[in-house]
């Protein structure tokens, strides 16, 4: 497994496409405390998923900072990102905390299991 953290700053987004070759899964990290940027996050995600080289890739949405009081829950993030509208990729959302490590292993296990189920069909 090769994992790359390509960052989310606007200045780095043009470089994302350099990492798409042979991508089986995309892990999208959402700041669950940042309601003001969820629309921008949704637009970037949906635009990215239209890339041909990401065709068939699974999508794991890590809802980060869910250990912070008042953060968005899974339903709010699901609605904000309009995940139900994504029909071209299998997706899953998991609450996590980068500080405590909560659910990070579970998320990666989902990515591996999902990719494994698809890759060994051929």
In short:
With 122 residues, this protein is α/β, with parallel strands linked by helices.
Describe the model:
GO terms for molecular function: GTP binding; GTPase activity. Keywords: GTP-binding, Nucleotide-binding. InterPro entries: ARL2/3, P-loop_NTPase, Small_GTPase_ARF/SAR. This is ARF/SAR superfamily. This protein has a domain of 76 residues: 3-Layer(aba) Sandwich (Rossmann fold). The longest helix is centred in the last third of the chain and has 16 residues. Helix 1 links the parallel strand 1 and strand 2. It has 122 residues and is of the alpha/beta class. The chain has a 3-stranded parallel beta sheet, with helices on both faces. The protein is globular, with a radius of gyration of 14 Å.
Uncertain runs are none
Strand content: 15-25%
> Measured on Cα atoms, how large is the radius of gyration?
14 Å
Number of strands: 3
How many helices? The count is: 3
Please give the order of strands in the largest beta sheet: 1-2-3
The class by helix and strand makeup works out as alpha/beta
CATH superfamily label of the domain at 23-98: P-loop containing nucleotide triphosphate hydrolases
What sequence of helices (H) and strands (E) makes up the elements?
EHEHEH
Stated plainly, the CATH topology of the domain at 23-98 is called: Rossmann fold
CATH classification class of the domain at 23-98: Alpha Beta
Query: What does the main sheet amount to?
Result: 3 strands, parallel
Helix content: 25-40%
GO molecular function: GTP binding; GTPase activity
Organism: Mollisia scopiformis
Pfam families: Arf
Protein name: ARF/SAR superfamily
């Amino acid at each position: 497994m090769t994992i790359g953290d390509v960052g989310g700053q606007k200045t780095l987004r043009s470089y994302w496409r350099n990492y798409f070759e042979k991508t089986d899964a995309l892990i999208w990290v959402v700041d669950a405390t940042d309601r003001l940027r969820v629309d921008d996050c949704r637009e970037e995600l949906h635009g990215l998923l239209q890339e041909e080289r990401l065709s068939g890739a699974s999508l794991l949405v890590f809802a980060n900072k869910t250990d912070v009081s008042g953060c968005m829950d899974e339903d709010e993030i699901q609605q904000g990102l309009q995940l139900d509208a994504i029909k071209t990729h299998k997706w899953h959302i998991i609450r996590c905390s980068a500080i405590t490590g909560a659910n990070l292993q579970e998320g990666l296990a989902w990515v591996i299991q999902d990719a494994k189920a698809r890759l060994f069909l051929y």
